[in-house]
Prior knowledge:
Elements: H1 4-21, E1 28-30, H2 33-44, E2 66-68, H3 80-101, E3 105-107, E4 113-115, H4 124-146, H5 154-168, E5 174-176, E6 182-184
Parallel strand pairs: 1-2, 3-5
Antiparallel strand pairs: 3-4, 5-6
Helix pairs in contact: 2-5, 3-4
Amino acid sequence: MRSRRPSHRAALLGLAGLLAACVPVTVNISFPQDKLEGAARQIEGDVPAQPATAPTPPPPAPRGGTTTVDSTPRSDLRSPEVEKAREGRRQRRPALREWKGKGCVGETNQGLVVARPGETCGPEVAGLLRDENADRQVIYGAFVKENKIPATDIPRVRSAFAKARQERARPNDWVQQDDGQWVRKQ
């Protein structure tokens, strides 16, 4: 009977080791801000499309950890939802530019468009902004999902897209600075 205990313990230890090896590990990837901004510019159309490259695999991290990866996030988002959002944005662009030119619409520091307080905008602006922001959210969500970016980094992603949009803004368009202040682009 004594000879069974050591083998029983060894079997239990082996089983515990096997179970521990089967525990799923989540690795969240955090890209440097300049890489997020570069990908956002590419998606927003500032930079010519480059061949898609998969992000460099992250080094091993503690379970549930976040690893900073110094590679470029994937920006070649291709899905029916993203294509529909892009097409909606393309169709909406002339009207959006017109309202921005009148000073009725501004680009926030979180990558959305809003009606400027006190400006005299037409009633159709609300629907235009709602649809534009919904399509932007689809693109941001697909970008986060494709690149396995943790939810805690979503504000950084939105900020990167905001910067790309503000860089493309025309002179005299309203843009919201990082500190929340609204200014006209020079």
